[in-house]
Fold this sequence. Notes:
The chain is of the alpha/beta class. The protein has helices spanning 17-25, 70-80, 100-111, 127-130, 136-143, 158-166, 190-212, 223-231, 236-277, 282-299, 302-317, 320-333, 342-347, 352-357, 365-374, 384-394, 406-432, 453-487, 491-495, 497-504, 510-523, 526-538, 545-553, 560-569, 579-585, 598-610, 615-625, 629-653; strands at residues 3-11, 29-33, 40-48, 52-58, 90-96, 117-122, 132-134, 146-149, 213-215. It contains 28 helices and nine strands.
Amino acid sequence: xxxxxxxxxxxxxxxxKTSLFNTLTGxxxxxxxxxxxxxxxxxxxxxxxxxxxAEIIDLPGTYSVHASSLDExxxxxxxxxxxxxxxxxxxxxxxxxxxLKRNLLLFxxxxxxxxxxxxxxxxxxxxxxxxxxxxxDALARDLKTKVVLISSKTNEGISELKELLANYKxxxxxxxxxxxxxxxxxxASEKEQNHRDTVQRYQFINKILEKSYRVNRKEAKGLRAKxxxxxxxxxxxxxxxxFILFNxxxxxxxxxxxxxxxxxxxxxxxxxxxxxxxxxxVFTNLLAEGIIPGIGGIxxxxxxxxxxxxxxxxxxxxxxxxxxxxxxxKIMRKFGLSGKSVVPLISGTxxxxxxxMATRNMESWKERLITILVTPFTxxxxxxxxxxxxxxxxxxxxxxxxxxxxxxxxxxxxYLLGFVTAIVAAYILNKVLKIKSNSHFVIExxxxxxxxxxxxxxxxxxxxKAFVFEAGKIILAISILLxxxxxxxxxxxxxxxxxIVTESNVNLEETTLNVKIASYKLEHSYIGTFGKLIEPAxxxxxxxxxxxxxxxxxxxxREVFVGTLATIYSVGVDDEATLMEKMRKEVRADxxxxxxxxxxxxxxxxxxxxxxxxxxxxxxxKRETNGWKWPLIQLFGMTSFAYLVAFIAYQTLK
Length: 654
């Protein structure tokens, strides 16, 4: 490659900017954070004509260079920071055929920065259907730039764009618009000056579009208007939305069940194969009982995570998610939130980390803070393994209310409980927090469109990979640490466990004796010693020391709870038994009373529904709020509330 060109893609939300980025870069892209902030940045490479290579950065969507949110502020900073490694040689402003007037406001502002600037007008394939005609030559002449009509869906115009990018030096920086300072007499503030600037730019844009842009108004009311009348109806809109959500979650569980069983079976067989065929020793035990189950505990979540991101991406790509945000705004405002809070709350059903990061497009700091604080109440995918195994233990697998399966009903109630709690908590915080806030709600209503397979696939791959590698590192590390702590212990009780147990149980057969030895060693291991230490604090909730270990380790990631129990309960029980069977056989100190009763199970479900059991989420909240004040309030507040609710539930039901 002869030369590397740095290119910035910028545009209003819903113009197809990310689709263009995916078309240009394909799989040659990665996601990270801008220095000092947690806004996602996408960077990819693209081959251009004449042996050029381009590094393309996909900037956050923005309506104007006068930023009103953190996302927009990042996009502007990249264009003005000449010392930044992302400072571009050429800027591509992405517009779309139906909202060209509004899109050109951003174009004229970006052009004033002095970059060689190319205007890309997306959705060319929709022009005939919408009755739109654009005189590209006249538009390019008036804007003093190069204009390309493209279609991200059909790849039309992409070759022409690449040719222009390779020859960007032939595009002279120009100022298509000049502010008429004579008309600016006296302004009260800089904000009013920005407003005057915007008015004059739109006057300039109107004159240009009068000559180069035509629309056949006969087709103005088409399928979009009919769909909006149904999907955004004041009654049916909500019914349809919740029906869609219900079917998404139903599909999520049913579709992922079979692949998860296959993954579980594969790693179980792999662990047993290693144990039976490798030389006996510490390394083999670590591999078979620590590393392989740890990796399996990561991979088994991939089907659920991937399907959830798939459904959310489809809702976004079709244009429906924007309608949901608009629909929910009126309700959300009563609780101190806005329609934009819906996206983080829904995204929170996948993972609270990207959900909290998604609040950066909210203009009001108070609304954004409240959304950040309540989002962890929504049931994330990491809670699913905990819910599934506890529900399977304590809830009968038969039909109950209205013929619905009891286990499925409890699971749906837990999701509903999380969402309702988030809304109620938002209402309380809105009354308690004395933060001045000016809020205005603006959202783009994109056209309905069929989702592009490439966009969906790249989105699912990117998000799933991020989840697996970020949460996976924690789960694997915890699994290895747990194995070490459970396999070694302090003092003579652990060291002489075999002798101590054998002398007091001389008449037992070998299999039963081995079970007792293993149980004794576990109880006196490092992890057992620590579990006994915290047991008095959790006994009022119905938990024993083994469950206490699970609570502590799951602070790294909620799903680690199941892996912890799998590690702990694998000692002293038939290796062929499933985790569910091992947990069902667990009894209290009296040797008779089961550990996992209905009261204990409900207590545990409620604790995980409300507790802040996620170290990574706390770290993100700290970065988003620029301090430890709010994450610590969130941690202690949610955990205390979870403890209180679990205590009441157990004491009432036992």
